[in-house]
UniProtKB/TrEMBL annotation:
Molecular functions (GO terms): RNA-directed DNA polymerase activity
Domain Reverse transcriptase: 1-275
EC number(s) given by UniProt: 2.7.7.49
Keyword presence, Magnesium: no
Pfam families xref list: RVT_1
Domain of life (superkingdom): Bacteria
Keywords: Nucleotidyltransferase, RNA-directed DNA polymerase, Transferase
Protein name as annotated: Reverse transcriptase/maturase family protein
Length: 350
């Protein structure tokens, strides 16, 4: 496979820096650090161009914090200046990787996403189980602690399968090596733009093994979660063994013990939905979190603006599944509570 050169020159143009600023600032224009950067925007962008061009860019310190939804994760966020520089680098190298990625890998890619991944799995289940009338089994795979386990040497080798520009690789290597509080030589921080791309690059090794070596037809991946469908249970067990061996021996990764083979007719949990051949449901946890938000609103523990933002987001997610009766019940509960509050003078009608 021919590697691509001439990428470093694309990174340090002022036009690329300006585009990167707007991407990094999207939906964050009134954040304090974005406003501060904007006060001397031209000088900051010129500095970024010079540091990238002369290879003197040094990544800033991480801010480390945890999020608990949808599950507990450790997030490592860079200063805004560094996020602009990462966009400058990704704008140049991203298209090189993108054109060689597996079409049914859906995480952190333009035009893809969770809903597209869910739609593809739902389509396959319908075609196989309803149209063809097959009894289908699913291998639900999960790579354990994926971001924190990616080996730097393996990732750098994979980058070099695509890119032959030494200066671009130098910048990429420096970002990989500056992995915050993670152990030396392993792990990329959740929250970095480059980490999203690099995780897809490294995951593409698994995609190629599954498609080109095992020749599996019905395989879909969303970052560290993947689903394989087959009417042959024994074949699926053999594939599971081969995949686990490949991950451990070739990629230095491990399958999560929660990974399992199940009968697809009982529902396949993937990308926030439980997929059946003729319908989709949301996870019970999604409904539980929505009801919890309503409870906190009623108790005065959640302001209306924050609630509305979370409520619309949750409804958007649930709207892709068969949740009409659930969402209507919650909607009527809210309307009744608002009516009572208005009647008692505790709530001013909008």
């Amino acid at each position: 496979m021919k590697t691509v050169k001439g990428l470093h020159e694309k990174m340090h143009t002022f036009d690329n820096a300006n585009i990167s600023f707007h991407k990094a600032a999207e939906n964050k224009r009134f954040h304090e650090e974005v406003l501060a950067f904007s006060m001397s925007k031209e000088d900051e962008l010129l500095r970024a161009c010079e540091e990238v061009e002369t290879l003197t860019y040094s990544q800033g310190p991480y801010t480390v914090f945890k999020v608990w939804e949808p599950k507990e994760r450790l997030i490592m966020a860079l200063p805004f200046y560094d996020r602009v520089v990462q966009h400058m680098i990704v704008n140049a190298i991203g298209p090189v990787f993108e054109e060689r990625f597996y079409c049914h890998s859906y995480a952190c890619r333009e035009g893809k996403g969770m809903h597209a991944a869910s739609n593809q799995l739902y389509k396959w289940l319908y075609e196989l189980m309803v149209v063809q009338g097959l009894r289908i089994y699913a291998f639900k795979g999960d790579i354990s602690k994926y971001f924190a386990s990616i080996p730097h040497d393996g990732l750098k080798d994979e980058n070099r399968r695509y890119i032959g520009d030494k200066k671009a690789l130098y910048l990429m290597d420096n970002i990989i090596d500056r992995n915050g509080i993670l152990p030396d030589g392993v792990g990329i921080p959740v929250g970095n733009l480059t980490s999203q791309l690099f995780a897809n690059v490294y995951g593409n090794r698994l995609d190629k093994f599954i498609k080109h070596t095992l020749h599996i037809k019905y395989y879909v991946r969303y970052m560290d979660d993947f689903i394989i469908l087959s009417p042959d249970l024994n074949q699926l067990k053999e594939w599971e063994k081969r995949i686990e061996e490949f991950l451990e021996e070739e990629m230095k990764l491990h399958i999560n013990p929660k990974s399992t083979i199940l009968y697809a007719g009982n529902g396949v949990d993937f990308c926030g939905y439980i997929h059946h051949p003729t319908y989709r449901k949301v996870r019970k946890g999604s409904v539980r979190r929505l009801k919890k938000d309503v409870k906190h609103l009623k108790a005065g523990e959640l302001d209306r603006e924050t609630f509305n933002r979370k409520y619309q987001s949750r409804l958007g997610h649930m709207g892709h599944a068969d949740t009409y009766h659930v969402t209507k019940a919650i909607e009527y509960d809210l309307l009744f509570w608002e009516f009572e509050q208005t009647q008692s003078g505790l709530l001013v009608p909008v």
